[in-house]
Design the sequence.
């Protein structure tokens, strides 16, 4: 805001854009510097808004996948909890039970 107040005379000036490509001359109508700054500010705002919307959607989908994975793992854990334990006789014969314990 201070920039606009202190530089009112300069920002009130107009400018015209020229484009010269392949022998074709294009000229725009005159714009004030105020309008140019405002348009760029709005353009950057819309680009930022679009980025944040895309990022929000991406994170929402990632969160949904994570919650689905947690649900699947909890169901697997509950099914493993409900499985009967093996007989203790079978465990004694297994090679893992023959290792020394510390």
Sequence:
């Amino acid at each position: 805001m201070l920039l606009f107040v202190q530089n009112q005379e300069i920002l009130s000036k107009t400018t015209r854009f020229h484009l010269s490509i392949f022998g074709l001359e294009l000229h725009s109508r005159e714009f004030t510097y105020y309008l140019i700054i405002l348009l760029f500010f709005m353009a950057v705002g819309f680009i930022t808004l679009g980025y944040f919307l895309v990022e929000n959607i991406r994170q929402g989908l990632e969160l949904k996948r994570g919650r689905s994975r947690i649900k699947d793992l909890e169901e697997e854990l509950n099914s493993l909890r409900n499985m009967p334990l093996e007989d203790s006789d079978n465990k004694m014969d297994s090679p893992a039970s023959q290792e020394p314990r510390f």
Observations:
- Strands lie at 14-15, 18-21, 24-27, 31-32.
- The mean pLDDT is 84.
- Helices lie at 2-6, 8-11, 33-81, 88-93.
